[in-house]
Design brief:
Strand order of the largest sheet of chain B: 1-2-3-4-5
Number of strands of chain A: 20
Oligomer: heterodimer
Mean pLDDT of chain A: 80
Order of helices and strands of chain B: EEEEEHEEEEEEH
Number of helices of chain A: 22
Number of helices of chain B: 2
Mean pLDDT of chain B: 86
Shape of chain A: extended
Helix content of chain A: 55-70%
Largest sheet of chain B: 5 strands, antiparallel
Structural class of chain B: mainly beta
Structural class of chain A: alpha+beta
Low-confidence stretches of chain A: 1-24, 147-166
Strand content of chain A: 15-25%
Distance between the termini of chain B: 40 Å
Largest sheet of chain A: 6 strands, mixed
Strand order of the largest sheet of chain A: 14-17-18-11-19-20
Radius of gyration of chain A: 36 Å
Radius of gyration of chain B: 19 Å
Largest interface: A-B, 23 and 26 residues
Number of strands of chain B: 11
Strand content of chain B: 35-45%
Helix content of chain B: 10-25%
Shape of chain B: elongated
Chain lengths: 744, 159
């Protein structure tokens, strides 16, 4: 410890702005590496923040490093120099973050006067915010002279690790092939064997032709028969071997692809709501479905084939060189040209397929957008516009494919031409050699067959290029998705909880979405069994508050406690088992009503389900349906009214018997009559549960113990309906506005 | 719960074939209807009796708990309403102008019907399939595995 202190002192003894030269590479890395070298023993990095602007708002790389003792600022100086400015945490007062729309500023102050000023782009505000929070915590600790603290550096999310080359993505596939390693090796051996069996032909054709073309004496029938039988045997063997190989490979590749699909979907399920808000459904669907299929096709058809082709080429080349070096060299003449072409074309194809894949995604996105939204499309008579939108997306696909095909259509015949050239050379040279008695007709035939196969291999290999690049692009997109880190950090030791009492406490909760501050410090304590009505205009942060309580989003600052436990320390799944959620737009999955009600509790008995449906006032209308509880609902199912769907979703929430209930505008999508029905159902649901209800119709909150009025991400008023009306504040205004609407 | 459901009730079949529900206290509800709650997945249990306006009068999970006479009446009333033919074998499925034409042998005799789309064939849990024709009749296949292999092959193309 003493050692660490002295090192810090030494560091501080140097002038604040030290100039140290450093070879220039990637600025961010250079800064990072340099920062690491400045950390003394006993000093621990708590947070890092890359700044990307200078005071004039020009792009400029900088790095702020917060340790348990100091705050360091690093930036690239003139030339290959790094400018370092350190401050001891005990020497500075305050670090504040100010937002200016697309950019933000960090200000470091001491005793009221500014010491340093950083600017950064809006995308980094979230990280900056957490840096500020950590700075405050560390400063407090430093002042309290308690250098040991458990908070360690969180790994920073690297945004650009998806930018790796596609080839790497293909190599990563191997890790999915691992469980079937033995089968893959077996398939490869079988491939080799069948390749070898094929080569028997060219081996036997030489003596066969020579026997037939010989001039001294009659053709020996039994010898000819033997050769032909040998060739037939080789063919049968090749057939059997490649049959088994194909079957084996298809089997393995289907399994790898299925593994990939499942893993991707599992991963997707673990991602937070915030991720889904950002992503287009069509794109995600495509990645899991067609992209994995592309990979599967590649593996079953091309992967081993490619390896086999390479080996075969090698064998043939060696064999040829052995038999007749001259003819071999002549025959292999076009090879360098082919290699050059392949290299050129590969680059083009890779870009083309990546673009094609993106275009496909875009097209699927248009479909997943338009088909579920068909009512809106028709209502606004925008069919023509959607047709145009689809046409544009499809045009993009067409253009991308054209681009690839242009390269491709030239490349493929070109290879054929080159192979033909190679063959012609062999024929020409061979004819000359035979004429001069250097080789026999048999040898020539053997050669021609061998070379023919050689070039066929080359041809198929070059054709595989497209498949390889296509699969690489697909693999890249799949791994892209797999590499998204769940932004809900799973704390190592989460507490598993059983049934909760349902006490909720929000302590100075702040939440930032992108660069927008949505929650600006909300504190609220809700007793078990209490019903809270959340009111306020749209955009006040009501739904965000509910999302935070559900832990769909993570609080940026502050904390939420449930039964006295920090929400972040609880096992999310355990916690959510205590949650009942009724949304404005009830979502029914494709399946029977029974399955939909039992969604949260798969093994509920029919009795429980019927009881829940009764309590939710759904039982009677379900009985009127032709198939009762067996009626299909959801995307392709029975048409149910909004109120009916809502009551099914209430039954679903009731069945899991939650201790905390969230009603997010549960009745705002239906008419007053239905609302009364739903309200009755909700009254059954609310009893004995902590309830947070959001409603625009203030009347629906009559059962609420307290009304909480929100404005601009803050709580402005709390109280009962009467007391709030009397106070004449925000609630009174909302109430008045609503009365005007209903009476007017 | 919201409603009081009768436990000990009796049922009377009127001469005109309609059902009258008699509650424990003797209140009579005429033109009552039996409703199977799970007509496709569990037709044998969970039968409710509702009034002509759709109000639930009684709900029985296990018919064996009912007195013999009531059960017979209830099942007779159900029998008048139930119509879910069970497919025994599928003779042919051919592509028609708008969907498919099925020729099947059911427990109620041979039937030829039309389905409109792939969505007309719905799997209900494991191995149970319902085929809904264009007139909204449900044809049930309680267990796909119990069909003869040829029928199963025809059906498997569609679900």
């Amino acid at each position: 410890m003493a050692d660490a202190r002295s090192s810090v002192l030494r560091e501080n003894a140097t002038p604040p702005a030290a100039l140290i030269s450093k070879p220039a590479t990637d600025p961010a890395e250079t800064l990072q590496a340099h920062a690491d070298s400045l950390i003394g023993a006993g000093e621990r990095v708590v947070a890092r923040l890359q700044t990307d602007l200078n005071a004039d708002l020009h792009f400029h790389q900088g790095l702020i490093v917060l340790t348990n003792q100091r705050l360091l600022h690093l930036e690239l100086g003139a030339g290959p120099r790094i400018q370092v400015t350190p401050w001891k945490l005990t020497e500075v007062d305050e670090l504040t973050l100010e937002e200016y729309g697309a950019t933000a500023a960090l200000n470091l102050q001491n005793q009221g006067s500014g010491i340093f000023h950083w600017r950064l782009t809006g995308g980094r505000v979230r990280e900056a915010d957490s840096l500020v929070a950590k700075f405050r915590a560390q400063r407090k600790l430093a002042l309290a002279n308690a250098p040991e603290e458990t908070d360690t550096e969180e790994p920073e999310p690297t945004e650009d690790d998806a930018g790796g080359p596609p080839r790497k993505a293909l190599l990563r596939l191997w890790q999915f092939g691992q469980p079937w390693r033995n089968q893959l090796v077996l398939a490869f051996i079988l491939t080799l064997a069948s390749t070898w069996a094929v080569m028997v032909w060219s081996y036997l054709i030489t003596p066969l032709t020579d026997e037939l073309a010989q001039t001294h004496g009659p053709v020996r029938k039994e010898k000819v028969l033997l050769y032909i039988l040998g060739m037939a045997g080789a063919s049968v063997a090749a057939w059997a071997l490649s049959w088994i190989k194909t079957w084996l490979l298809a089997r393995v590749s289907e399994r790898v692809a299925s593994q990939l699909r499942r893993q991707t979907f599992n991963h997707l399920q673990r991602l937070s709501l915030a991720y889904f808000n950002k992503k287009r459904t069509g794109d995600l669907i495509r990645r899991i479905s067609s992209d994995t299929d592309e990979i599967c096709f590649f593996m079953s058809v091309n992967l081993i084939g490619f390896a086999d082709d390479i080996l075969m080429l090698l064998f043939t080349a060696i064999y040829l060189l052995n038999v007749d070096p001259t003819i071999a060299i002549v025959a292999l003449g076009p090879l360098p040209i082919v290699a050059y072409l392949v290299n050129r074309v590969r680059e083009k194809l890779r870009g083309g397929f990546a673009a094609g894949s993106r275009a496909w995604s875009q097209m699927s996105s248009v479909l997943t957008d338009t088909i579920p939204g068909v009512r809106v499309v028709k209502a606004f008579a925008q069919e023509a516009r959607e047709i145009e939108r689809f046409r544009a997306a499809d045009q993009l696909v067409l253009d991308c494919n054209d681009r690839v095909n242009k390269t491709w259509s030239f490349f493929s015949p070109m290879i054929t031409l080159l192979t033909d050239a190679g063959l012609l050379v062999v024929w020409g040279y061979g004819a000359w050699s035979v004429a001069h008695g250097k080789i026999t007709v048999g040898q020539l035939s053997g050669f021609v067959i061998l070379i023919g196969r050689f070039y066929a291999r080359l041809d198929s290999m070059s054709r595989m290029l497209a498949a390889v690049q296509r699969a690489a692009a697909s693999a890249h997109r799949v791994f892209d998705l797999l590499d998204v880190k769940p932004d809900m950090p799973v704390t190592a030791e989460t507490k598993s909880v059983g049934r909760l009492k349902g006490e909720i406490e929000l302590k100075d909760v702040k939440f930032r979405y992108g660069s927008r501050q949505i929650m600006r410090g909300v504190s609220l304590k809700i007793a078990p069994g209490e019903m809270i009505g959340l009111v306020g205009s749209s955009g006040a942060g009501k739904t965000t508050l509910v999302n935070l309580v559900c832990r769909f989003f993570e609080v940026s600052e502050g904390a939420i406690f449930v039964d006295g436990m920090d929400l972040r320390e609880l096992n999310v799944e355990d916690y959510r088992r205590n949650l009942g959620l009724v949304l404005q737009e009830p979502y029914l999955f494709f399946g029977t009503i029974l399955e939909n009600i039992a969604y949260g509790k798969q093994h509920a008995t029919r009795e429980e389900i019927i009881a829940a449906a009764r309590a939710a006032r759904a039982h009677e209308f379900i009985m009127k349906l032709a198939d009762g509880y067996d009626s299909m609902v959801g995307e392709r199912g029975q048409q149910l009214s909004g109120g009916e769907r809502q009551r099914i979703s209430i039954a679903r929430a009731l069945l899991i018997n939650p201790s905390i209930l969230i009603l997010d505008e549960a009745t705002s999508a239906v008419d007053t009559e239905t609302e009364r029905e739903i309200q009755a159902a909700l009254d059954n649901l609310i009893t004995g549960r902590t309830t947070i209800a959001i409603a625009h119709r203030l009347g629906t909150l009559r059962k609420a113990n307290r009304l909480v009025v929100m404005e601009n991400g803050k709580i402005v008023e709390i109280g009962s309906h009467e007391s709030l009306l009397e106070a004449g504040g925000a609630y009174a205004r909302l109430h008045e506005a609503m009365m005007e609407v209903t009476n007017g | 719960m919201s409603q009081e459901l009768a436990k000990n009730f009796t049922l009377e079949m009127e001469p005109n074939g309609s059902l009258t529900f008699v509650a424990t206290d003797g209140t009579r509800t005429e033109k009552a209807k039996p409703v199977r709650l799970f007509p496709l997945t569990d037709p044998e249990s969970w039968i409710a009796v509702v009034s002509s306006e759709g109000r639930e009068l009684a709900c029985v999970e296990d018919l064996q708990t009912l007195p013999e006479a009531v059960r017979t009446t209830l099942l007779a009333a159900c029998g008048k309403r139930d119509f879910v033919p069970v497919i025994k074998s599928i003779k042919s499925v051919t592509r028609a102008a708008n969907g498919h034409t099925w020729t099947v042998m059911t427990d109620r005799g041979e039937s030829i019907f039309q389905t409109e789309s792939d969505e007309s064939i719905q799997p209900l849990g494991q191995d149970r399939v319902v085929v809904i024709d264009s007139r909204n009749t449900r044809y049930l296949v309680p267990d796909v595995n119990k069909l003869d292999p040829k029928s199963r092959q025809k059906l498997e193309r569609y679900y």
